[in-house]
Design a protein that fits this description.
mainly alpha; 37 helices; about 725 residues
Length: about 725
């Protein structure tokens, strides 16, 4: 078989394939030739021949062919025996001559050895771990062995999770895992201790391998003083990547499944807060991660220890550590890096959710102090990091928005525990930030807190005649002139809509509020999304009955701004050109609501019945005129929107019918009803045109007759 292998031709094909200047057709032909070699010649022979080449790409091809042959079930025990002899000879004879080799090559050699061990140990290769532990004369060999252990751990140690394995494969995997505990682990840990500080590359490889083993080996092997000393020393090393890998190992230790008392004892031994001081460099994220999960583990262990009187000593020890971990996690909330911040918020959120069960007599004061500090920290973090605009769809800004929601959930939990203190701190933040000279981010944070506080203290939102939300609205309304940036404008009007009943108790503020809505910072804003949202929020507050009735006093002012919309925006630079059809529809609806209220209270609105009636009829005629546009220039969505607008305008007039107060406005009723009725032929025409466009599937006359019947009935 070896005579059939033309190594020079394989090398030539590999050069063509890896040469960036080769055409796609040449590369395809080269790959086809290599596949033919793999099909025609057994993998062990290709491996042996290619490892005699001087070309690294040929080595990789030979080893990869062997891996495919083993994992594909093609290589029998004799073939695998040949492969391991070839590989061990290559490692012993050739590898020591290299100062280093590409990581992809050492990884592929390790993969090949692990694939063979998985099938042959212990039946066909009982001395596997002993044989492999003897090849440690060079740094490259040690790297291969470390990668071998890491790969074997991934495939064997987690065999119970391998859903694709047959029962026989799982049984074999478990036997290998059991044997590894006795034979491989001592070799592995000895290798770790000698390579963990050898060189940056070996250190990271060793830590990566160790992290995988911690999950299932005896934890006492890792908690051995020398091993811990090594891990902590690397955590403080200048090499940030190695430090991150080391903290990853420590995190595996603290999240490892075990009895809660043992977990408490291990965390006490580790004493992470004192041994891993706060830092603001590349390793901060990994440190935030370990303290986040550490705090969660402590809270869970404390909850279990607290349920048993005999474990009071463990509970006390755990509570003391929780304080230190919580303090560190609060520091991470203040970090401007999203990943770091997110870890801190996750841990503190869990801590606060379990606060009630910590309320023992001897601990209550400490818990209250910590919760109060958390409240202050969460509120301070409502201010976005410098540079945020809330206009960009950048990943960091989206993540911060998500983190802030979690922080408000934390404040919600605290608010249910200590509502008065929470409201006091929220109001204090608003007073501090709602000042002239405050930054846009501070103003936005204060408005954000005010708006979302309504979700925490829902029962207090309805009555704004006094109390917390009344005080909040007094503050934010007073500083409205400072909201000139888009984020603050949007948030301000959101607050106005949510707490609109505030103005029902202070109707004298309505003229100022209307001025804010009908301004370049409101419905005339240069940004489409802002003006659309503000206009919609205006329609929202008109549905609050006391406000709607209050607005009847200012119908002239409202009309002066809405006439451009009603008249089809003849000037071209007014509100109509700045709004979508859907928003215009909502605006028509809102205006007609106010108009109905004005008709019912004409003696207070400052307008005569004829004035109001004329305005309403103008709206109806504007819509009807738009509906009469030729069918080929009026898209279905536009027709739908206009018909919806017509319904929107008509809906509030039901109140006139049900009011029974027609004496003073009988003429108005007739005029308005007549205007609605005049749109009927237009609507019927649209329905008929639509029916005709359905290729005869609908009977046009039947549609017309049904519509006419509907008109006759109503």
């Amino acid at each position: 078989a070896t005579e059939e292998i033309d190594v020079p031709s394989i090398e030539a094909a590999l050069r063509v394939y890896y040469d960036g200047s080769s055409s796609q057709e040449m590369r395809r032909d080269a790959m086809e030739y290599l596949r033919q070699c793999q099909t025609r010649v057994p993998g062990q022979y290709i491996l042996e021949s290619c490892l005699h080449s001087e070309m690294p790409e040929a080595w990789l091809f030979g080893i990869d062919t062997a891996v495919q042959s083993v994992e594909g079930g093609v290589a029998d025990s004799a073939a695998r025996l040949k492969m391991r002899h070839v590989l061990l000879a290559y490692i012993s004879n050739r590898i020591p001559s290299f100062a280093t080799i590409p990581s992809y090559l050492s990884s592929k050699i390790a993969t090949a050895l692990a694939a063979i061990v998985k099938l042959d140990f212990p039946d066909y290769w009982p001395t596997a771990f002993c044989d492999l532990s003897s090849i440690l004369s060079s740094e490259v060999e040690k790297e291969i062995l470390l990668r071998f252990f890491a790969y074997l751990n991934d495939t064997i140690a987690h065999s119970e999770l391998s859903n694709g394995w047959t029962p026989e494969e799982r049984e074999r995997g478990q036997s290998v895992k059991d044997a590894m505990k006795e034979e491989a682990i001592p070799t592995f840990l000895s290798l770790i201790s000698t390579t963990i500080t050898a060189s940056p590359r070996l250190t990271e490889t060793a830590l990566f391998a160790l992290k995988g083993f911690i999950e299932w080996i005896d934890i006492s092997l890792v908690m051995e003083p020398n091993m811990l000393s090594l891990l902590f020393s690397i955590c403080h090393a200048r090499d940030a990547d190695a430090a991150i890998a080391s903290t990853g190992c420590l995190q595996e230790v603290i999240t490892k499944k075990m009895h809660h008392n043992k977990k408490i004892a291990i965390l006490s031994t580790l004493s992470l807060p004192s041994k891993l001081p706060f830092s603001e460099d590349a390793r901060t994220q990994s440190l935030a991660s370990i303290f986040c999960y550490g705090l969660i583990e402590l809270v869970q262990s404390f909850e279990k220890a607290l349920s048993c009187e005999a474990e009071k000593e463990y509970a006390d020890s755990c509570f003391s550590m929780m304080e230190a971990y919580a303090a560190r996690c609060m520091q991470y909330i203040g970090d401007d890096r999203m990943d770091v911040m997110a870890f801190g918020v996750e841990a503190i959120a869990y801590f606060v959710s379990k606060t009630k069960m910590m309320m023992g007599d001897e601990r209550q004061d400490i818990v209250w102090t910590r919760v109060q500090a958390i409240t202050t920290t969460c509120l301070a973090r409502m201010v976005a990091p410098e540079g945020f605009t809330f206009d960009d769809e950048e990943e960091d800004e989206e993540r911060f928005s998500s983190i802030r929601k979690e922080l408000m959930a934390v404040l919600g939990n605290i608010g249910r525990l200590i509502p008065d203190y929470t409201k006091e701190q929220m109001l204090s933040l608003m007073k501090e930030f709602l000042q002239e000279g405050s930054s846009m981010l501070q103003l936005e944070a204060a408005l954000y807190v005010c708006y979302h506080a309504g979700e925490i203290f829902r029962s207090e939102v309805e009555d704004l005649s006094g109390g917390f939300f009344h005080d909040c609205m007094v503050l934010i309304f007073k500083q409205a002139a400072t909201y000139t940036a888009s984020p603050t404008i949007s948030m301000y009007f959101e607050c106005v809509a949510r707490y609109g009943t505030f103005f029902a108790y202070d109707l004298s503020s309505l003229p100022v509020l209307l001025g804010q809505f009908f301004s370049p910072y409101g419905m005339y804003h240069s940004e489409k999304k802002v003006r659309e949202r503000v206009t919609y929020l205006f329609t929202r507050i008109t549905k609050v009955k006391p406000i709607c009735e209050g607005l009847t006093h200012y119908l002239r002012d409202i009309t002066s701004h809405l006439m451009p919309v009603i008249d089809g925006d003849k000037k071209g630079d007014r509100l109509a050109s700045k709004l979508s059809d859907q928003t215009k529809q909502s605006l028509f609806d809102a205006f007609s609501t106010i108009a109905v209220a004005s008709l019912l209270r004409t003696h207070e609105s400052g307008l005569s019945v004829d004035n109001v009636t004329g305005l309403v009829v103008s709206i109806i005629r504007t819509i009807a005129s738009a509906l009469e546009a030729p069918a080929d220039t009026c898209e279905p969505w536009m027709l739908s929107g206009l018909l919806s607008s017509l319904c929107g305008v008509s809906r509030p007039f039901d109140r006139l019918v049900s009011s029974g107060n027609w004496r003073d406005i009988e003429d108005a009723r007739s005029t308005i009803a007549s205007s609605f009725y005049s749109t009927y032929p237009v609507v019927l025409s649209i329905l008929s045109t639509y029916a005709s466009s359905l290729n005869g599937d609908v009977d046009r006359e039947a549609v017309q007759s049904k519509v006419i019947m509907g008109q006759d009935c109503g």
